[in-house]
Amino acid sequence: MRERESETTKRTHPKIRAAPVEDASCALAACGPDFTRLSSCNLPTETGTVQLCVYGEPGGASWVVCISGAVRGRQSVHLRVHDACLTSEVLGSLKCDCALQLRMFQQHIATHGGVLIYTPQEGRGIGLANKVAAYSLQEQGLDTVDANTALGLPEEARDYTRVRAILTDLGVASVVLLTNNPFKLRTLRSLGIQVESAASILPDGLPEQCVGYLRTKAARMGHMLPSSRLHARDAEKAPRLRVPEECVECDDSLSRSGAAETTPLPWGERDEVALLLKTLSHEIERHTRREDTTTSRRRPFVTLTYAQTLDGSIAGPLGASGERLIISGVPSMTMTHALRAIHDAIIVGVGTALADNPQLTVRLTPGRNPLRVVLDGQLRVPVDSKMMRAGVERRTTAAVVTLQRTLCNSAAAMRAAHLRSCRVRVLAVKPDERGKVPLTSALSVLGERLRVRSAMVEGGTEVIASCALERAAHRVVLTLGPKLTHGTRPAFKVLSERAPSLNEAACPLYGVHSFCLGDDVVVSGRGPSFDRLAMQE
Ligand SMILES: Nc1nc2c(ncn2[C@@H]2O[C@H](COP(=O)(O)OP(=O)(O)OP(=O)(O)O)[C@@H](O)[C@H]2O)c(=O)[nH]1
Fold this sequence. Notes:
This is GTP cyclohydrolase II. The protein is α/β, with parallel strands linked by helices.
C-alpha cells in the first residue's frame, strides 16, 4: 500500500487509493546517458508514411517518435509532445480531447512535416491506475485537478527532459510547438529547447462529455481555450475559431483551418494583443531613453491595468466567505501576464496584498517576473505573503514602499529589518496629506533607487484612484468582463479630500482603442502623463 496516502481520500473516499508508485509510468529515473534510440523503421499510416523511432533506456518505458519530412538541421519544425491517454486513444473515451488532438496532429504533419513525440506519461504522469482512480473520484464530483490531489498525487507530474534528448538526437534546430498548455511551453523552454512560438491545437467535433474537463483545464491549469468551446451545448457544433484574439498565447491558425491547412504563425503576431504589447514596449523604450538623457528624476513609465465588471466591480474577495470575484476570461488573464512580463515592476496597495495575497508573477506566458512592489504606509504586509517570497532567486524580487515616519516606530523598524533579511527592499517616502504613500513619490524612489523604468499599477481601489488623481498613468489598459455584480466592489474611491470636484479629478484618456478578447472587451488609451514629444524622438 502506498505510504504517502492522502488523509483526505482516506476519510472521504475510503475505497479509493492511489496506486503504488511503481505503477506510475511517470516514475522514470532522470534522463541519463542510457536513454537512446533503440529502433526505427518506416511506417505507413492512414495519414501517410512516417519514420517511426523508439527511444528508451533498458527496462524503461518507450518514448515513441513519428517524423514526417526532413527535420535534421531545420528551424521551426512543427512539434507536438503528446502524453499517452489509453482511455481516449485506445478505448475511445469521450472524457477528454486527447485522441482527437493526436489524430489532428498526425494529419497536420502529413501536410507540413514535423515531429510527434508520444510520451509514456499516462494521466499527466501519474500512471494509468492512478488516472482511473482519479476518474472514479471525478464520478463523485471532483474535478481533474482536485481528484489528483485527493489521491495525494500532484496535479502535474510530467517530465520532459527526454524531449530535449530526442530533439538533439534528431538534430532539430528549433520548433513551433502545438499545444494549448502553457506549462508545456514553459517547461520545454526552461529545458533550453528553442521553441520559436506556440500554436494551439483545437479539434472540431468535441464531445459534450469532455467540456467539463476542458473548462477545468482552462480555469485551473491555464490552458488557452476559447470560451466558445467551454459551453456544453456549443461544444459539438462549435465553429472553428474565427477571431484570432480568442487565443492569446497560442496562434489559432490550426483551429481556424480545422484540417490544418495553414502554417502556425508566431503567437499573436497579427492580433490586437500583440499590437498592444508592441506599442507599449515601444512607448516604454522611448520614455526610458528620454528620462535617461533629459532628466535626473527617472520616474518610470506607468501602465494602469485592471479588470472590472460592467457595473464597476474589481476583482478580489467578496464578503465574509472570502469567495473571489472572477472578472475576466483566460485570454484576458493571459494578456495581463504578458503585460507584466514587459514591465520592470508591478505595484499594488497593501489592501490588495492583504486581502488577495496575490503572486503577481508571470505564469501564463513566457517572460521574466517583474519586481513586486507594495505600497504599505504602516508596513503591514506579511513577510510570508506570496508576493514577498523571494524563492530561490538572488536578485531583489520584492519591495515595500512605506512612510519615513513609520520606520521611527520600533516595532515597524523590526518588521522592516525582517523584510530586509528576506531580501525584500524597504524604501520610505514622505506621506501625502491623507497620511498615505503617494504613488508619484513611490514611483520616483523606485526609479531612482532601484532603476525601475516601467511599472504596472494593478490595484486595488485606492491605488487606482491615486493613479487617476495624481495623473500618473502614461497608458491605461482596462479589461471589461461582461458581468453585473450589483456594485459590490466599487473600483474607484473618490478621494474627495484632495479633489474639489469630480470633474477636476477625472482625467481623460486619448487615442482610445478597444477590442474584444474572448468574451471580454479591452480598452486602451494614453493617460495624462503620456509625453508625445518623447515618443517622436
Ligand atoms: N490525471 C488525469 N489525467 C488525465 C485526465 N484526463 C486526461 N488525462 C491525461 O492528460 C494528459 C494530456 O494532458 P492534457 O492536460 O489533456 O493536455 P496537454 O497535453 O497538457 O495540453 P495540450 O498540448 O494542449 O493537449 C494525458 O496523459 C491524459 O492521459 C484526468 O482526468 N486526470
